[in-house]
């Protein structure tokens, strides 16, 4: 059978896989259950504006994602993403900015120049960070709380633990120290620009999934939106996918669904039994995004601020990033039980930074299973499965990052490389 590949799932992993297949000249069909591409990083329309299911931020170290975006929009760095030097501003208690110096000197200078820390704390942070960047043997079972226990309480509260929550979406007492170390090393141990924060300037679907799908179609592939795969029949010589209306046979299939949706599709396939049971042990963490529309003349003094003393960790000014004047996006991660009035509390957290007056509308979107909890000793499956025609992709596949866009796109591209090697 001539290679004819189906990708199931049109999130960032599936779109990366479909694009890579189409670019390699392989016949590809992408199936996405929803009408909108992008999965957990997709556009939603609210009050007539293109918003996102969750405010996202990328790191300069996300090289695979940035390369894919740049391949589709040659001017992406200007009009698709806004690159900012790493800064954590939490008035009036804390601020840290990494200057444009070679890494890791930029982190050292950022820590030594931080406002809100005493000299002993700055030196403790610098010494500890240097040790972490050079550490290659963090035991698998350690949590971030273990890893940071020698650090002063103030440093953990203002810096290391908020970084853990924003990078791993997992509280420090549950989060894997090893994955945290790897993210810190990726951000601060390479080039200065790896630690940059990149804010999307457009909705997440039009940043990558939609242009990737358009390119797949241009290259002769097929993209089926609002088309859920309901059954998989995995034989030795082909894999047949069933949807509500039809079935089609493929030489190979890449399953790029979220881990929480894998068992529904893969449980009947005996060769995928062990993966399904590993993934069944995952726990999930929510992320809430609260949009608050103020007067269009209102803007924050910076595009984002860190927040303390309440459920939200960050506030973003979408007027500055997306041209949506007066619109703020509050983000609250890892709150197991988010209080019903979390957005009121988040607005109160803004008081030390700005007092914008009453909003004209507000909308909270809570993604209850935003990401898997990135815990120690987590079993993350490989791309190759025990069935020679079925491959996996998604942010939970074994890799250097936690549940992020970069894990998703890396696994999507790599799943195609593994599949092509096998042909
Ligand atoms: C609110 C929120 C905030 C986040 N913030 C950040 C951030 O700031 N930075 C960052 O890097 N990451 C962030 N993440 C994580 C990031 O969004 C995910 O890691 C990434 O989008 C996962 O992509 P994926 O393709 O692996 O999976 P998914 O996005 O889950 O894609 C799977 C796709 O499969 C489809 N599907 C499922 N079953 C079927 C079926 N039977 N047939 C056809 N299609 C099917 C689904 O509809 C979905 O589109 C955030 C996530 C959320 C929810």
Description:
It contains 15 helices and 20 strands. The protein is of the alpha+beta class and 423 residues long. It has 3 domains: 4-62 and 202-282 and 375-422, FAD/NAD(P)-binding domain, CATH 3.50.50.60; 86-195, no CATH class; 284-372, Alpha-Beta Complex (Polyamine Oxidase, Chain A, domain 2). Strands 10-2-1-14-20 form a 5-stranded parallel sheet. A 5-stranded antiparallel sheet has the order 16-17-18-15-19. A 3-stranded antiparallel sheet has the order 5-9-6. β7 (87-90) and β8 form a beta hairpin.
User: Can you give the helix content as a percent range?
Assistant: 25-40%
Bound molecules: flavin-adenine dinucleotide
| Sequence of strands across the biggest β-sheet | 10-2-1-14-20
CATH fold call of the largest domain = FAD/NAD(P)-binding domain
Quick one: biggest sheet? 5 strands, parallel
How many E strands?
A: 20
Instruction: Tell the overall outline.
Output: globular
- CATH class designation of the largest domain: Alpha Beta
- Flag low-confidence runs: none
Coarse structural class: alpha+beta
CA radius of gyration:
22 Å
Taking the alpha carbons of the first and last residues, their distance comes to 11 Å
Query: Average pLDDT, to the nearest integer?
Result: 95
């Amino acid at each position: 059978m001539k290679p004819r590949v189906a990708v199931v799932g049109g999130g960032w992993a599936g779109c990366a896989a479909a694009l890579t297949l189409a670019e390699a000249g392989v016949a590809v069909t992408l199936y996405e259950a929803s009408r909108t591409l992008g999965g957990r990083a997709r556009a939603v329309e609210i009050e007539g504006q293109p918003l996102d299911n969750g405010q996202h931020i990328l790191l300069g170290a996300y090289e695979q994602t940035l390369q894919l975006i740049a391949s589709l929009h040659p001017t992406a760095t200007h009009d698709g993403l806004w690159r900012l030097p790493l800064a954590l501003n939490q008035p009036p208690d804390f601020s840290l900015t990494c200057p444009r110096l070679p890494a890791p000197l930029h982190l050292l200078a950022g820590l030594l120049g931080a406002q809100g820390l005493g000299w002993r704390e700055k030196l403790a942070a610098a010494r500890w960070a240097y040790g972490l960047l050079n550490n290659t043997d963090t035991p698998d079972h350690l949590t971030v709380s273990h890893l940071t226990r020698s650090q002063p309480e103030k440093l953990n509260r203002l810096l290391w633990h908020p970084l853990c929550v924003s990078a791993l979406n997992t509280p420090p007492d549950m989060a894997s120290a090893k994955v945290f170390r790897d993210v810190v090393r990726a951000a601060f141990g390479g080039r200065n620009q790896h630690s940059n924060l990149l804010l999307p300037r457009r909705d997440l679907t039009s940043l990558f999934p939609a242009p990737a799908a358009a390119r797949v179609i241009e290259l002769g592939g097929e993209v089926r939106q609002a088309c859920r795969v309901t059954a998989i029949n995995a034989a030795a010589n082909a894999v047949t996918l069933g949807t509500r209306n039809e079935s089609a046979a493929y030489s190979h299939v890449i399953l790029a669904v979220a881990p929480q949706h894998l068992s529904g599709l893969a449980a009947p396939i005996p060769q995928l039994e062990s993966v399904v049971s590993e993934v069944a042990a995952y726990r999930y963490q929510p992320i809430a995004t609260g949009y608050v529309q103020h007067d269009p003349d209102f803007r924050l003094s910076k595009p984002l601020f860190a927040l303390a003393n309440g459920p939200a960790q960050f506030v973003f000014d979408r007027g500055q990033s997306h041209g949506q004047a007066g619109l703020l996006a509050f983000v609250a991660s890892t709150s197991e039980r988010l209080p019903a009035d979390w957005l009121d509390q988040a607005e109160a957290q803004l008081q030390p930074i700005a007092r914008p007056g009453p909003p004209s509308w507000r909308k909270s979107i809570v993604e209850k299973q935003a990401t898997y909890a990135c815990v120690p000793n987590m079993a993350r499956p490989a791309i190759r499965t025990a069935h020679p025609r079925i491959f996996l992709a998604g942010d939970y596949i074994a890799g250097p990052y936690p549940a992020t866009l970069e894990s998703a796109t890396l696994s999507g591209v790599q799943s195609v490389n593994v599949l092509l090697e096998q042909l």
